[in-house]
Amino acid sequence: MSDVVLDMSGIARIYGKGAQALTVLQDAAFSMSRGELVALVAPSGAGKSTLLHLAGLLERPDAGALKIGGVECGALNDDKRTQMRRTQIGFVYQFHHLLPELNARENIALPLVIAGATSQEADKRANTLLGHLGILPRATHRPSELSGGEQQRVAIARAVANQPKLLLADEPTGNLDPATSDLVFEALTQLVRSTGLAALIATHNHELAAQMDRTVTIADNKVVVA
Ligand code: ADP
Q1: What is the SS3 assignment for 125?
Q2: Which of 14, 24, 60 to mutate to test the pocket of ligand 1 (most atoms within 8 A of CB)?
Q3: What is the DSSP secondary-structure string of 140-186?
Q4: Is the C-beta atom of 42 inside 6 A of ligand 1?
Q5: Which position among 77, 117, 136, 199 has the lowest Cβ density within 10 Å, counted as fewest Cβ atoms?
Q6: Using one digit for the tens of pLDDT, what is the confidence trace for 58-104?
């Protein structure tokens, strides 16, 4: 089996038409392998979110090929793309987007139950993840009863609950103080290393970026080594 998790080539993304057209990506290529932790560092407006949305199958490219786990996603209909997103891709955002009425364990278990797990199986997996991320004692706390760093660790656990191949994160520590940011990043790193996930993490934090396997940026509408 190939180790390539994400493979993008000849990708174009152009917003708008005619004189108003804004080219964000043109003939861009990018790929990631299992277990790779890649930082995406680029100025605001360069196209980081666009790249994450394309890789996450939330947007379709205007041209090019995009494969996840060897499957060409351009040819898939919306239902198949949704299925792919649910089973192969995890998302973490700057703000946790946890459901306020559910506790930490329930927030993590929810995507598992949606994917067909029994509540017992889902709780077991949620507990394992809470343990890996060092927040098992917080299992029954609701988001409002958790610190920012704990909330973000729950959001990470939820993103990987269904054992996706690809984790996409948009400024996952952008809302945290430096010490908490380091803790959350360390938890994220350990998770990537222990599961063989490929993770693409947009960040403005150069110190965190330097700890990843490589850093890419977006320049001249292409994804290039930073
Ligand atoms: P970043 O995440 O690096 O800040 P984005 O990917 O959000 O950059 O945006 C790249 C460029 O594309 C920006 O100039 C932004 O204004 C533009 N853009 C993003 N989404 C849209 C959209 N849906 N329609 C038109 N322009 C967009």
Answers
A1: helix
A2: 24
A3: T--GGGS-HHHHHHHHHHHHHTT--SEEEEESTTTTS-HHHHHHHHH
A4: yes
A5: 77
A6: 999 999 999 999 999 988 999 999 999 999 999 999 888 999 999 99
CA of 45 to the centre of ligand 1 (A): 6
For 116-174, what is each residue's pLDDT tens digit? 999 999 999 999 999 999 999 999 999 999 999 999 999 999 999 999 999 999 999 99
Domains of the chain, first to last = 35-48+83-225 (3.40.50.300)
Which residue's CA is the nearest one to ligand 1's atom 14?
A: 45
Q: What are phi and psi of 48, to 5 degrees?
A: -60, -50
Confirm or reject: Cβ of 125 under 6 Å from ligand 1. Answer: no
Residues 67 and 89: their CA atoms lie apart, in Å, by 12
